[in-house]
Model the fold of this input.
Amino acid sequence: MAARTYRAAVAAVLGGEAILLTWNAWRFDWLRGYDAFANDLYATVVATDLRLPSVAETSVWHTPPLWFALAGTLRRLAGSAGWEHVQRPGQLLAAAAGLAVCVVALLLARALWPERRALHLLALVLTAASPALVRASAMYHPETLAAALVGGGLVVCVRGLKTRPTLVTGVGAGALFGLGALTRAWALPVIVVALVALALDAHARGYWAPVVALGAVAAAFVAPWLVNQQLAHGSALAFNRPAPETPLLERRPASFYTGPRLLRAFQQPVTPVFRNELVPHLYADWWGDWSLTWNTAPPPPPGQLLEHGVVAARVRQSYLGIVPTLLALAGVVALALLAVARRSLAMGLLPAALGAVALAYLLFAIRYPSTDGDTIKATYLLAVLPAAAVGAAFVVDAARPRGRAWSVGVAVAVAALVLAELPFLVL
Done:
């Protein structure tokens, strides 16, 4: 692919995504987003009183404060400027962070395979067209900011491990990871994986400064928050509901793991079907909108049926997600195997980080079972989206025969997928 064509394509995808995310954030009713009212209470307390909220003031007191401080400051400025919807800047902040997640996918692909431009573009498009990212980017919620910061830390680490990690690598990655952990706790397992990767590299090279810098800088950002949680709430990872007293593996029924209604994800992928069945619930929520917060009226009362078009749109999304999901799973495995074969810590960092977040997600969902499926939202896994997209892009780029005709064919197939998704992605 010619350099000029490549640059134009990247600019077109990022420009289109910026328009899409901004349009959606402007039109989306902020109160339809996850924990929206509680998030607004948190942001108001932080920005107005310059303190953390109490348990009595908001139900999301357990969430780290960075996004709320930013959103609350923007909220005050919007109020001073006479904006009618003072939460809108917080939604635009989420949209900007969603665009940054797309940039992270592009940079990760470029760091690992600098010359494979088609792979870069495919990773970018798969990230940009992910329904979970597009929905979260319109909400008044911190998830996209955390994903962008964690992804930025991974980019710094991958680039350092490709050559030789330096003190700047440790400081930069530590700052990004630390800020990510100060936004959502999902950054913590990625910090551990990055420290292990840099430590393995340091053991081989005898240069430990990047490891020490990453750990020290990340701790400087997140340790005060964790200490506060431990002192104020009895646990550094306190949550807004108590964990059951029963043993961990007895907190979820067998159906949570086996997903007996898996095929219903392609027939009726909306609440309350297969609630708390991990795989179908997660799949339907990632590719569609299981909880019905997106581009539809609120769910009807029990006993009443949804409109046919609402269900049909989400059924279509479920089928559209089959191939990208399989490619992402195959890509993660392929990256892990290739990293072992080549002894590449840079390449292995992506599947390792993805696996660490996935394991933390699973343990969280088991530790805090819920009757409404709240603890297995798909957006909790946004931090691993760039790694999954890079893996999927790698599989496609490695498997396709070389030649202009095959490249055009892949481009047409990807364009068809995105066009089929657009009616759902655009509010």
Q: What stands out?
A: The two ends are 33 Å apart (CA to CA). The chain has a mean pLDDT of 95.
